[in-house]
Design goal:
Number of strands: 0
Order of helices and strands: HHHHHHHHHHHHH
Distance between the termini: 86 Å
Helix content: 55-70%
Radius of gyration: 25 Å
Shape: globular
Number of helices: 13
Largest sheet: none
């Protein structure tokens, strides 16, 4: 009689093998954006130097803050700099973008804020939303999502300023980019629906958060057009950038020798449909908004609330 074949370590390993967990990224881009926004606000207040342009007694907290003191409350109720300073540093405005061809203002305005209240609210939202997304999807996809959503919010904001003849009004803040992250969270939930355990609970809680944030856009001095533009851009970008393999999919390189498993498709057909449709909608949307700005069309955007961000 022949000897019994030795027990294969590959087969033994296969018996105790489990699919690998999803890769977890270390969040560093969102903290960098956070520090950049805070640093930019401090520099904005330094450059503003309210006592040098106004009566020292007119500036808020001038005795304690010196050149970092705030503009009078009647000029800026958010405890921040003057409109003049924000324009110098790259606020979004019609004359600068369309007349002087300063397209870079679409991106610089995302790092400027109108006051302490503004920057604190936006940075709290950035940390709450952004870190979780970056840990799951990495800095490249979240960085692209942040910038493209902010650009989308800036486009719709500038269209609103142009259509409502408020060319002297400026728009600043990371609101468009932040609403883009919220929109992407919604589309990510929809396109990766099968991997969530408590689907309805996750969807309802997310819709409540989105609804509350959008409601803020109807308050005075808040640019709802930037919110809507950023949210729509982020929503469709989420279908493109945040698509994940479905539950049960395992790459062949992770399957040990001797383990015979039925491999599932990496992505579902509906995921590809959402992705292709979103790419088309995004291209058309960005092209349409750019045409509205640089060519001009008669359509009315009256559903957007008139006010600076």
């Amino acid at each position: 009689m022949g000897k019994k074949a030795p027990h294969s370590p590959d087969i033994e390993a296969a018996r105790h093998w489990h699919p690998p967990q999803g890769e977890q990224w270390m969040s560093w881009l969102v903290p960098v954006i956070f520090v950049s926004n805070i640093g930019m606000f401090v520099y904005t207040m330094y450059l503003n130097d309210c006592p040098d342009y106004l009566n020292k007694d007119s500036c808020l907290f001038s005795k304690h803050l010196g050149r970092f003191s705030f503009q009078p409350f009647r000029e800026n109720p958010l405890l921040g700099p003057s409109t003049r300073t924000l324009r110098i540093l790259g606020a979004l405005e019609e004359d600068g973008v369309l007349e002087k061809h300063q397209a870079w203002r679409f991106f610089t305005c995302m790092f400027l804020h109108a006051g302490v209240v503004h920057v604190v609210a936006n940075m709290f939202s950035l940390l709450f939303i952004g870190i979780r997304l970056e840990e799951e999807f990495g800095f490249l996809r979240i960085g692209a999502l942040y910038l493209l959503s902010g650009f989308g919010g800036g486009l719709l904001s500038l269209i609103h300023l142009k259509d409502t003849a408020t060319s002297k009004t400026i728009s600043v803040g990371a609101s468009g980019a932040l609403f883009g992250l919220l929109g992407a969270m919604l589309s990510e939930l929809l396109t990766n629906w099968t991997i969530y355990a408590n689907k309805c609970a996750a969807l309802i809680s997310l819709l409540i958060i989105i609804g509350l944030n959008l409601a803020v856009g109807f308050l005075p001095h808040v640019d709802n057009s930037a919110h809507i533009g950023g949210f729509l851009a982020g929503f469709f970008l989420g279908f493109v950038l945040l698509m994940r393999p479905q539950y049960g999919y395992v790459s062949r390189k992770y399957v040990p020798a001797g383990c015979d498993i039925k491999r599932k498709a990496k992505y579902k057909c509906y995921q590809y449909f959402f992705m292709v449709s979103s790419v088309i909608i995004l291209l058309i949307g960005y092209a349409y908004c750019l045409a509205r700005l640089y060519i001009g069309k008669p359509e009315d955007f009256s559903f957007l609330k008139k006010s600076p961000r």
